[in-house]
Amino acid sequence: MALQLSSCRPRPRCRRLHQADIWKQDATETKIQHYQQHLQQQSHSQPKHQQQHQRQQQQQKHKQHQEQKQKQSPQLLPFMLLLVMLTLLTRPLSAFSNRLSDTKLHEIYLDDKEIKLSWMVDWYKQEVLFHLQNAFNEQHRWFYLGFSKRGSLADADICFFENQNGFFNVVTDTYTSPDGLWVRKDYQQDCAVFKMDEFTLAFKRKFDTCDPLDLRLHEGTMYVVWARGETELSLEDHHQFAMPNISSPNEAGMKMMQLLRADKILIPETDLSSIEITLNKAPIPATETTYWCHVQRLNDITKHRHHVVQFEPIIQNPHIVHHMEVFHCEADEHTEIPLYNGDCDQLPAKAKVCSKVMVLWAMGASTFTYPPEAGLPVGGPGYNPYVRLEVHFNNVEKQTGLVDNSGFRIKISKTLRQYDAAVMELGLEYTDKMAIPPGQQAFPLSGYCVADCTREALPSNGIIIFGSQLHTHLRGLRVLTRHFRGEQELREVNRDDYYSHHFQEMRTLHYKPHVMPGDALVTTCYYNTTADKSAALGGFAISDEMCVNYIHYYPATKLEVCKSSVSEETLENFFIYMKRKEHQRGVHLNRARSANYRSIEWSQPRVDQLYTMYIQEPLSVQCNKSDGSRFEGHNWEGVAATPVQIKMPIHRKLCTNYNPLWLKPLEKGECDLLGECIY
């Protein structure tokens, strides 16, 4: 194997925001049309000359109305949206069934109990409208809400709201110093306030303000910071002031959330039933990593075919439960699977068939709802009634005496939808063939779902991806899945430049990719190993690493795993090169891969050689069915990697005269010697 140093390192690429979901309801226009129809009905009983005169008057009024609407609608739209938000927030949701409030309005409690943040995303105008309730009272002199890169107050983008003369009527767009100790007034003010009083406030922000001292709103994980206080601020008199020191935990905080999220999905069916799949008093071992398995028989509801339309997690020990999956037992309907409740390493052989993914959850995720056109099929003739729940316990402190009953509550409907949905794993194989050298700021590993696999496994009309959950362990900081059709790169499937393993949502996608046979999907994870002394390896333990994108899609296929790792032959040649050319005496071909990786002294040239091998050399591809068997007709060893050209991100393509003062942007990332950046 010839290893060559690359003089031009691949670099990350940003995604551009796309316009979608135009507001469709125009109540004013509808009323005008109804009123015109009413006048036309009345005109049949009037003399002809009066009808002509009235028609002329109507045409003139309609023309004036259209001219006035064209002039005023751009300015009125934000105000109208605000009125809609305020109306929705002051009336019960039951009064708006199947309306805007159920789908467009998102909300979260910043302090988990009282301070309610609601927001609506206007994809057409590329802006977000925010509404805050119970954020302050008459004692508070100020409140701030802002956006941080990863939760700290360094280089944060903050809107300060001040109380003067008994009302919160002063707003200032600010940013913080790189050390987070100082607040400075932004030269461009972008916190557009609609309403402020002693109890609530409403304002809007554009996705991208074209201000280098603002953080762009994006579809990945956003870190929203907030605080309130009773001291006076002096921003009106000075360009900057010291960041207020908040000691009470009830007066400040940070929340991870996806602000630019897809509309919420309503369940149209009313014939819903629930199934609970949970552990049965499972004793949590006093070890760091445990995979606990529970085999359960579903009730008689599976005798008839149903569709899963929603699932929600039931978490009993949130500080220890890392992630969960439910697998269906792919066997004949009369096959008995032994009931089991214990360590997955001791799972009975007959339960190995329980391997088809049904539902899954990881830290930070919540309820997931299927789109109205698709549902996960369960039950019916030939359906085996057994399932296996697998729970990953991360007991870092090795606590004893803990018992867990975590699992899922699954809603099903006997009304079948148009498509059967399914789950597919993209990314890297769970193997120690892949490693991350120590001391790296942003080392990338990519897993390939190659064109030959999708060509073999997908239907002729392709599949639609509607949900995605990105997953790594402790070192993952950035994850994305890219979509290729031949030499053309299409829009990304999912991307999170600010990924956190504490917040692994199963996200409904605003843009739903259409993947055709012959397309390739490349999932790349970026890892920070600056705190490690030896190489981190791929594997199942929390101290190992993963790189996965669980996608929900329809129509269902037999393809369940489309992943890769470096080929065995390639890795063997790499170790030979390290031993003979780089004089790494600890490398031996008869030793375990993990031992060889950890024996290497990782200089920067050797890191570069490893990186070059991963992106250029042949792969071992998992193009697998749910039973673990590979699709036939291809040799999946030694497959060429999908060529991926990565470019440096350019976030401000649509901004004219960007950064005329040559200020250091808040979004400037930290980059390592490979040119890969973490923001």
Estimated structural class:
alpha+beta
Number of strands: 41
How much of the sequence lies in strands comes to: 25-35%
The total count of helices amounts to: 7
How many whole angstroms does the radius of gyration measure?
28 Å
Please bin the fraction of helical residues.
10-25%
Which term fits the overall shape? globular
- How would you state the average pLDDT, rounded? 83
Largest sheet report: 8 strands, mixed
Describe the structure.
It is a single chain. The longest helix is centred in the N-terminal third of the chain and has 42 residues, at 48-89. It is built from seven helices and 41 strands. The two termini are 35 Å apart. Mean pLDDT is 83; it is low at 1-51, 65-77 and 90-98. The chain has 679 residues and is an alpha+beta fold. The strands form nine sheets. Strands 26, 29, 32, 33, 36, 37, 38 and 39 form an eight-stranded mixed sheet that branches. A seven-stranded antiparallel sheet has the order 11-7-6-5-4-10-12, with no helix packed on it.
Could you provide a short overview of the structure?
The protein is α+β, with helices and mostly antiparallel strands.
Write the layout of secondary structure elements.
Elements: H1 27-43, H2 48-89, H3 100-103, E1 105-109, E2 116-122, E3 127-133, E4 142-148, E5 157-164, E6 167-176, E7 182-185, E8 192-196, E9 200-206, E10 222-229, E11 240-242, E12 252-257, E13 272-278, E14 282-283, E15 289-297, E16 306-314, E17 321-329, E18 340-343, E19 354-362, E20 368-369, E21 374-378, E22 386-394, E23 403-404, E24 407-413, E25 419-420, E26 422-428, E27 435-436, E28 443-449, H4 451-457, E29 463-471, E30 476-485, E31 488-496, E32 507-508, E33 514-515, E34 520-527, E35 536-537, E36 548-554, E37 561-566, H5 568-580, H6 593-599, H7 604-616, E38 619-624, E39 637-639, E40 670-671, E41 677-678
Parallel strand pairs: 21-25, 26-37
Antiparallel strand pairs: 1-2, 2-3, 3-9, 4-5, 4-10, 5-6, 6-7, 7-11, 8-9, 10-12, 13-24, 14-23, 15-18, 15-22, 16-20, 16-21, 16-24, 17-19, 17-22, 26-36, 27-35, 28-34, 29-32, 29-33, 29-36, 30-31, 30-34, 37-38, 38-39, 40-41
